[in-house]
Amino acid sequence: MMKDIYADLLWRGLIHQSTDATFLPEWLNSGSRTLYAGFDPTAESLHVGHLLPLLMLRRFQRAGHRPIALIGGATGMIGDPSGKSQERNLLSAEALQANVAGLQQQMQPFLDFDAGPLSALLANNADWMQGFSYLGFLRDVGKNFPINAMLAKDSVKARLERNDSGMSYTEFSYMLLQAYDFVHLYDRFGCQLQIGGSDQWGNITAGIDLGRRMRSVQLYGMTCPLLTKTDGTKMGKTEKGALWLSADRTSPYAFYQYWINVADEDAGRCLRVLTELEQAEIDALDRLRDEQPQARHSQKRLAEALTRLVHGDDGLAAAVRATEVFFGAEIDRLTDQQLVEIFADVPSSQLPCGRLETPGLSLIQALTTAGLAKSNSEARRAIQQGGAYVNNRRRDDLDTMLTAADLASETVIVLRTGKKRYALLRFQDETKDERFSKKGG
RNA sequence: GGGGGGUUUCCCGAGCGGUCAAAGGGGACGGACUGUAAAUCCGUUGGCAACGCCUUCGCAGGUUCGAAUCCUGCACCCCCCA
């Protein structure tokens, strides 16, 4: 007995458009199907925007279907005009190569590649597109695309109607490539369903049309809504840019924090759309959020589920530990390793360890060298006002001298002003001149 | 070309010879409160070896015991009459 994937997607609000709302549920429940979603390698890491389709693939697989993650090594060379207001810059071949590798790596944990006939597949359309000659493509594929139908697509229309930006023939052709991908995946793997974000609808239907023309076969499509916040802005945007899935670009802590801070109004939808929690639990969380919003059970559950999914149990543990430290009590008896992990996003400065020998380093100086105060006066003020903390412990004596006893780990002292501004001081031998070793910011 | 007004500390904006590091507001930063929210309240807001000293009020000079405040020149901005 298969899980009713369509009904599940429906109540989660994950179906924006589908080619056939009455036929698809039955088709999906009556057998194992092969489906795909495409990801263009525009960066070497996925970001939150990719999460939705990637999770869709995962949901389908768990419901007994076979997912294909298609990486657009070929289409990425062109640039998808959908949802873009301007012509895109082309990526170099090398950059593209690196991005493809990065994405493949990142997709691994989401899908099961060792599940017998349901094993997920990774495909790269460069593999079949590169062999295509221009003439061959025009004859076999291009011939099947009526220009008037192409011009009628929203993605194209939107761009042509703007008078400040046009569209090149290259981007115009993007649709053909993606359409052909669908047909190719059908030929090769019997893939009959393509899913994607709502901005992909035009490309998906182009593929369906092409399937009908070239192979006389019925293909299907489905899109999920774009993930936006109640205020209309995109989910997953931070002041620093996108929220990446790669730990190098967005630390597990920052990732976790983003979800912890989701607005109450958005939390319910995020739970539905981004987690695999069952309906009963989500309903319960909705109720809890209503009754005691301050407890923020929903946000915690959301952050937990997503961080575990993206960064694994270790990543989640690190994020939770970092959260405790950032908002919690004294920092003590930790190792350098732990501190560096927790404070990965925090600027640090180095000082020779001799500075901790008697009489020690004045707290005032420590704050200025760490960059937490612009001047000694500012440092004084912070201390006097009770806004200076060493290892999360308030120190309000102006004459405080820091010594080896204040180290939180082997070589690090954690300084903080105010509620959240942190900086690390590392005491190491080989440092020659403290002024040149500042980093971060 | 003629006449008038302006240029103040991060921003707006008072000050019009000493009591001015310069009112008030905004912002920012600390603290309390709180849900790691918003609002609110309190405090701080040029620098330094700090009951004192130094630098700051468009720029450069001058008058004066003393100038952000008065005079001269320069630069930029605004308004009115040509």
Concise structural overview:
The protein is α/β, with parallel strands linked by helices. The chain contains 17 helices and 15 strands. The chain folds into three domains: 5-224, HUPs (Rossmann fold); 237-328, Tyrosyl-Transfer RNA Synthetase, CATH 1.10.240.10; 338-436, RNA-binding S4 domain (Structural Genomics Hypothetical 15.5 Kd Protein In mrcA-pckA Intergenic Region, Chain A).
Radius of gyration (CA) equals 27 Å
| Average of pLDDT | 90
**Between the first and last Cα atoms, what is the distance in angstroms?**
56 Å
Enumerate how many helices there are, as a single number: 17
**Main β sheet profile:** 6 strands, mixed
Q: How much strand content do the residues show?
A: 5-15%
CATH topology of the largest domain: Rossmann fold
Features:
17 helices, 15 strands, 441 residues, elongated, Structural Genomics Hypothetical 15.5 Kd Protein In mrcA-pckA Intergenic Region, Chain A, five-stranded mixed beta sheet, Rossmann fold, disordered C terminus, 44% helix, Tyrosyl-Transfer RNA Synthetase, RNA-binding, 3 domains
Describe this structure in words.
The protein has 441 residues and is of the alpha/beta class. 44% of the residues lie in helices and 13% in strands. The strands form 4 sheets. Strands 1-6-5-2-3-4 form a 6-stranded mixed β-sheet, with helices on both faces. The protein has a 5-stranded mixed β-sheet with strand order 9-15-14-11-12. A hairpin with a 2-residue loop joins strand 11 (388-390) and strand 12. Helix 9 packs across helix 10 (201-215), helix 11 packs across helix 14 and helix 16 (363-369) crosses helix 17. The longest helix has 31 residues, at 297-327. The chain is elongated, with a radius of gyration of 27 Å. The structure holds one RNA strand of 82 nucleotides.
